[in-house]
Amino acid sequence: MVIDIFNGDADGIFALLQWRKAHPLPEQADTHMLVTGVKRDHALLQQVSANDLATAELNLFDLPFDKNSQALQACIEEVAAVFYCDHHHSEQLFTHPKLHTLIETGASVCTGLLVDRLLQGQHRLWALAAAYGDNLDTVATQLAIEQGLSPAQQNQLQRLGWLVNYNSYGAQMSDLHLSPADLYQQLCNYDSPFAVIDDNSSAYQLLDQGFTDDMARAEQTQPGLSTSHTMLVDLGGEPWGRRISGSFANLLARRHPDKAIVVATQNPYSERQGESLTISLRAPQHHLSGANQLCSAFNGGGRAGAGGVNDLPAAQLDNFVRQVGDYYGNYQL
Question: Which terms are listed as keywords in the entry (predicted)?
């Protein structure tokens, strides 16, 4: 059994897609399992049964190691081998003869780019879509120029990355247009990202329309706070707001490169409506550091340039924003 476990966002999907195009599997359905979820669903290894794990080959992409460390230690003696590729901050790494890790946490790297480097650029167009989807525009554009891609082609890959990433945001699968597993399997049928874009019946068209509609609604939302170094936007508690929250945070970060961006949405728990928030934080583009540390203080996480909190009590929002403002304001001083 081969089990591929991956983040449902652009980085996770395009990282695995590159890997499988370089390492195709036999077509027998009973020998391959996909495990994924919404973007913030990181503790995925524990969802796999002990029977499936026995003698399995595990591949994990774009999932914080700390979220799966305990489950991995519990099953490491039973599995055949583990490959773990990620770019999130981790404090619980361990070594084992069966475990091979490729983990780097720099602000200018994502999992898709790590896989691209490992594969020596075999499927670089997909890696560029991953980088664009992970808001690494400068890195992606430089690599695209080196590939000889035109500005129009760069824009196409950027849009595809945005759309696949957009599809991953939500508190539950019902918030998404497509399940990440279905989207991954659809994308696997194409030889290149440009073939996806050119196919009028592909998932690209569905996601493009949904993205356009949701972004238009987000653009009508006024910031709850906007200072010289911090912006807060609350997108409310409807599914459209949860879907667009990460993409809108990325847009605001590009639009206001000197500001930290905080985007909040209400979690859909009826007994706690309005009391629990999901937070997307983007560090100022001119100072890509600290986002993971700020979010970790509120039981969240992430990486240097971008982080999040899944379940922030609404009463703590002011304190969170204050700490964000203090951190980046002090830097600017």
Answer: Transferase
Q: Where are the beta strands (DSSP E) in the chain?
A: 2-6, 32-35, 57-61, 81-86, 99-103, 225-226, 230-234, 260-266, 276-282, 301-302, 306-313
Domain that holds residue 131: 2-209
Q: Which has the minimum average pLDDT: 16-20, 100-104, 267-271? A: 267-271
Closest by CA to 215, choosing from 258, 250, 266, 171, is 250
Concatenating the DSSP letter of every residue in 226-277 gives E-SSEEEEE--SSHHHHHHHHHHHHHHHHHSTTSEEEEEEE---GGGTTTEE
Tell me the pTM.
0.90
SS3 133: helix
In sequence order, what are the residues at sequence separation of 6 or more whose Cβ sits closer than 8 angstroms to the Cβ of residue 221?
A: 233, 234, 235, 236
Residues 187 and 227 in one domain: no
pLDDT tens digits for range 114-131: 999 999 999 999 999 999
Do residues 68 and 204 share a domain?
yes
Buried b (16+ CB within 10 A) or exposed e, 207-244: bbebbeebbeebeeeebeeeeebbbbbbbebebbbbbb
Closest CA to 50 of 77, 86, 11: 77
Sheet with 57-61: list strands edge to edge.
32-35, 2-6, 57-61, 81-86, 99-103
Give residue 183's Cα distance to chain centre: 14
